[in-house]
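Input sequence (491 aa), recorded before submission:
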Amino acid sequence: MREKNQHKIRTLIGWIVSIVQIVLSALVYILLVRADLLPTKLMAVAAVVLIVLILLFRLLMARKGKTIRFVIGLVLSLLICVVLVVGSLYLSQLTDTLEVITETAEETTCVGVYVLDTDSAQSIEDVVDDTFGILENQEREAADNAIDQIDEETGTLISYLEYEDTGALADALLDGECRAIILNEGFVDIIAEAEGYEDFDTQVREIASYEWKTVVEIEKTEDETEAAENNDVFIMYISGIDTSGGVSATGRSDTNILAVVNTETKQILLISTPRDYYIPLSISNGVKDKLTHAGIYGVQVSMDTLEMLYDIDINYYFRINFSGFEQLIDALGGITVESDYEFDVEPSYHFEQGTNYLSGIEALAFARERYSFSSGDRQRGKNQMAVIQGVIDALQSPSILRNFTGLMDSLEDCIDTSIPYSLLTGMVKDQLSSGTSWNVVSYSVDGTGSRVTTYSMNRSLYVMIPDDDTVSYAQELIEAVCAGETVTIEE
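Predicted structure, C-alpha cell format:
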C-alpha cells in the first residue's frame, strides 16, 4: 500500500514537472517566433529539441519501480525548466530592447535661457520683465516654442529683440543689450569655437531649460523606398554624438560615417567624413558650414547634407551617444581596442600603440581625443571606429550573459536607429543561415584646415576645406559596392 502511494506521488510530481516543462518550452518557442531572429531551419531544430527533451524526461519519470531513472528524469527536467525560465527572460528583454531601439524615432530639442554668469538671476521669474534676445531666422521655431512655454509658465508675455546671427546674439548678451538670450543648447559650444569667444561657455549660465520631442520622418522618394525594401544594398548614416541630453537630443555630430552595406556580396564600406568639413547644409541655401553643426538642426539635415556631398540616397540612420557608451562598456566588463599610436589624454589616461584593454571612462577618453594626432579628426574618427569594433567583439562573447540586464539597459540609452526591426532580424537570420564572413573596408575623405565664417556662426571658425579628389574617390567606392563589386582601398 505504501509503495503504491509512493508511486502515485511520484507520478503526480512527474506530470506536474512535465507540464511545467511543456508550458515553458511553448513560451520559449513563442518568444523565438516573436524575436524573429532564427532562420526557418534553426526554428525547426529548436522545436525538435524542445519536443525530444519533453518526451525523454517524461519517459524517464514514467517508468514504474525505477526510482533512479525517475530521480534522474526529475532533476534533468527541473534543470531544463530553470534554463527555459532564464532563456525566456533573456529573449523577452532582448526583443524589447531591439523594439525600443528600432521603434518610431524621436528627436529632443533642448533650448536654454542664458544670462551672464555674474547676473544675480537664478530662475526665469527673475528675468521675465527684462528683454530677451533670440535669433531672427536660425532655429526660430525652437525659440518660438520656448517663448510659448515661458509665457505659459509665467503668465505674462515676454519682450524680445531679434538678431540676425549667433555672433550678434552672443554680443547682445555680453554687452548688456539684453539681459537674457533664448538659444538652442547646442549653439553654446558653437559660439565657444569662434575666435574671441573661447570663454563664452564659462561667461554665461543657464537658468531655465525647455525641451520638446518631434518624430523623425525620413523622407524617401518612391525609388528609394523600393530600393530599401529590396534590402540587398542600403546606405546607413552613423552619427556619433556626445551630449548629456540622451541619444535622441539634437546636437553636434562628432562622428559622421556612411555604412554602405551589400548583403549579397557581404561587403561593408565605411566612409568617414571629418566633423569640420566645410560644405553647404541642406537648409543653408548654399551657405557653407561645418558638417558637425548640421546635427543641431536634426539628423535629417545631417543625412540630407551628406546626400548632397556624395550625390547618394541614404536609407537609414544609426545614432550612438558616446557618453552613454561609458555605461555600455562597463556593462560589458570592458573592451579591447587597437590603437595606431601611443598617446596620453589629460588628466591621467595613457594608451599604448597596439592592443589596449579599456574601461568605459577610458574608452570615452580614447574616442574623444584628437589633439594628440597630426591628422586630428581623421584619427579621432578611426579611434571611434575602433571603440565600436571593440564593443561588437565584446557583444559576441559569452561573458555578456553575466550582466545581461545592465547591457540591455545601456543599449537603450546610447543607441537609436531608423532601421526597421524586420531588416535587422532579417540580416541576423541570413548571417546564421550562411555563416559567411563580412568584408569590411574603410576610407576617410580629407581636406585642409582654414578659418572662415559659417552659416551657424558668422564669426571666424576653424574648418576643413574638402579635398575634391578624396570626395570623388569615395563616390567611386560607394558606386562600386552598390554595384556588387569587391573593393579595396587605395589610401
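Checked by second reader. The radius of gyration is 28 Å.
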